[in-house]
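Subject line: Sequence and fold of a protein, written as structure tokens
Area: Proteins and the way their chains fold up in space.
Start of record: The labelled sequence and token lines come straight after this line.
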Amino acid sequence: MKKILGIGNALVDVVTLIDNDSILNKLGLPKGSMQLVDGQQSASIKKGSENYKRKMASGGSAANTIHGLSMLGVPSGFIGSIGKDETGDFFEKDFKDSGVNTFLFKRDTPTGTAIALITPDSERTFATHLGAAVELTASDLKKEDFKGFDILYMEGYLIINRELVETACKIAKSLKMKIALDLASYNVVEANLRAFKEIIEKYVDIIFANEEEAKAFTGLDPQTALFRLSELCETAVVKVGSEGSLLKRGEEVIKIGTIPVKCKDTTGAGDLYASGFLYGMALNESLEKCGLYGAVLSGKVIEIHGARMDNSKWEEIRKKISEIRES
């Protein structure tokens, strides 16, 4: 089985269930958006929503994907930056308890948090304070930490630190690792389009994008964007929400549907899709089975609030994956 190393923003998710949209208006958060906030704003939002039910879980886009891979039994590692605080300790313990090999750099800055406000219609609104997460630098990356891994997985949010991303790619390529990149968010793509294109053309083997990110990158509809993206890498994946996903590798083009679910919260759907897809790649499975595994994980995670599923949900996933593998 291939081993997978992730690099991303190490955050702790504060998943908060609110009963109406008025709290969002009061806090100045556009519904459905992902807003970057400073430490003072983050504290104010936590204070303003403290009367609602909430739970904490280690998070961050690439972190969610790596956690999912480890829960499926894939040997996994994660590189990130946390604070020397209780929140950082919580992140580290959660990952180690899940079997992830951690390479965490501890800073004086507080650990980053992502407050996810979930309305009754399952829409999520994020207020993210990156904190120590963005203090990860190219100089932190050591070749020895990459050794033994076969695939490097990165979240597109890191593109704001071009030197970090390029250094990680160069180390990975020197070790003959495959590189997978998730485009993260359409607004991040729009703001960093040139950097994304240069990194992808030079280094990336596997691209994950949802339809908005694919359009921001190519200006095209999902199907056409899939073909354009596939010209830049070995494997292209375009996720199209409730319609499933589109996959292309070489001349092989596949459409994968979704599994029947009762959606509660779409947090983590894209991250866990990547977990399932890369799980298939770790086992050298067919492109179709990689996509099917992705559909199972993304479907199961939207049946809960947040991106951390309990053991019973993971048992359901493992059973479904076994059925697919044997079919």
Notes: The chain has a mean pLDDT of 93. The domain at 4-9+61-110+135-326 is CATH 3.40.1190.20 (UDP-N-acetylmuramoyl-L-alanine:D-glutamate ligase). DSSP finds 13 helices and 14 strands in the chain.
